[in-house]
Hints:
Helices cover 10% and strands 33% of the residues. By secondary structure, the chain is mainly beta. It has one domain: Jelly Rolls (Sandwich), CATH 2.60.120.200. The strands form four sheets. Strands 1, 3, 4, 6, 13, 14, 15 and 20 form an eight-stranded antiparallel beta sheet that branches. The longest helix has 16 residues, at 8-23.
Amino acid sequence: MKRITISKGSFALVAALGLAFGSCQKMERPALGDYPRDTNPPGGPLKFYAAMDGSSVDSIRATYGDDKNVTYSTGIKGQAYKGSATSYIVYPSANDFTQSGSFSVSFWMKKTPHAANAEFVFALPTTNNIWHKSEMFMLIEDQNQTTTSLTATKFMIKDQWFEFVGANRIPNLTNGQWHHLVLVYDQTTSKLTYYVDGAALTGLSANQTDVRSGGQPRGAIGWSNASKFVIGGPSHHGLNATPDGWMANYSGELDQFRLYGKALTAAEVTELFANKK
């Protein structure tokens, strides 16, 4: 066998070149650990947390999203994601959130009515062959349905639509102020609860609260077909697909985006709201 010998001089030259090359690397993102965190034990209920404090990093897995034309503004705490017609973020996944039977989605939003089409706040793409390409999403309708005092909003979960339209629009959600929104699903009741600024919406119909499968209570939700996670746009962005013509990216601001693998209690939602989390 042929032996390769490296002289001391050659070794020194290689080491010097390696050091020089490493020192020229441009660090465009903060070092790991230099990002907002939240108290959450390993394997705890908080599965995804993007503080949007000047970057797209998910603090749970120290993973950055693939940012598209994203800028940041003053948020409810620190900085916030500032959306536009061309902005969105695609994350590799929603982490262990997709293993949850119950769940909660919590975030702060600031928005005014937009001119046309439906703007997607977030979306959980699916590998299923379904036209909207989603396991879950939230959208806000245009100014023909949405005003500063009443917001036409639709949630979709497992191809079941939960609509707040017409006389059932959500008050003040798009009045240009910061609002805290939490969507909670409890697998033991198969029901959804919606919180706005710490208070649960009341007087809702079964079509807005009851999650079904084959006409029966769904129970554990099951996200086995989920792929990627998108903030600020429809699922198509996570699947290298072209969104339908009526689909638009979110033009407002978002802050403190959290996904929990449990149904948050009313007290836990109040704590998030009161502490601007």
